[in-house]
Amino acid sequence: MKLPHTWRPLGARVMAWFLVAALAVMCTMVWVGFTPEIKAQVTMFERLTFGAVGLGIGTCVYALTRSRVVARTDGLTVVNGFKRRDLEWAEVLAINFPRGAPWPNIDLASGHSISALGIQAADGGSSKKAVRTLRALAEELS
């Protein structure tokens, strides 16, 4: 495999942005359907609150969709939401993907374990292939 290689969750990204778009369309349709009298009753604070909620939803979806796992010759980068972990291959002891788990776990030499949200079981066979590839890279490069 040619490095660097990046894995991202396809199903989660597609579904998250689809739901954001559907929510935006629905809210727009409701607003357009209001009568002028009802629109006049909505205060600026209520509009700002609605905008803040939308921004919060967008931020959460962005955090979810930026998750990824990047394999390089010098190590592994795991991005889960807004947290990034740069690991050397020697730190990676094992990559486990238990049956029924939503994503794999990476066991580290420090005794800790981190989840790899960039590879998700919902993506089917490609997630299993990604874990097999990561295991082979960890064995070869550590």
Describe it for me?
The model has no long low-confidence stretch (mean pLDDT 94). The protein has 4 helices and 7 strands, in the order E-H-H-H-E-E-E-E-E-E-H. The strands form 2 sheets. The protein has a 4-stranded antiparallel sheet with strand order 1-2-3-4. A 3-stranded antiparallel sheet has the order 5-6-7. Helix 1 (10-33) packs antiparallel against helix 3. It has helices at residues 10-33, 36-41, 44-65, 125-141, and strands at 5-7, 68-72, 75-80, 83-87, 92-96, 105-108, 113-115. The chain is α+β, with helices and mostly antiparallel strands. It has 2 domains: 9-65; 68-141, Roll (PH-domain like). Strand 6 and strand 7 (113-115) form a beta hairpin. The radius of gyration is 21 Å and the shape is elongated.
Determine the oligomeric state from the structure.
single chain
- CATH class placement of the largest domain: Mainly Beta
Question: How many strand units?
Answer: 7
Radius of gyration, in angstroms, nearest whole number: 21 Å
Shape category: elongated
**DSSP strand (E) fraction?**
15-25%
* CATH level 3 topology of the largest domain: PH-domain like
Task: Describe the secondary-structure layout.
Blueprint: E1 5-7, H1 10-33, H2 36-41, H3 44-65, E2 68-72, E3 75-80, E4 83-87, E5 92-96, E6 105-108, E7 113-115, H4 125-141
Helix pairs in contact: 1-3
Please give a quick description of this structure:
The protein has 142 residues and is of the alpha+beta class. The protein is 49% helix and 22% strand. Strand 3 and strand 4 form a beta hairpin.
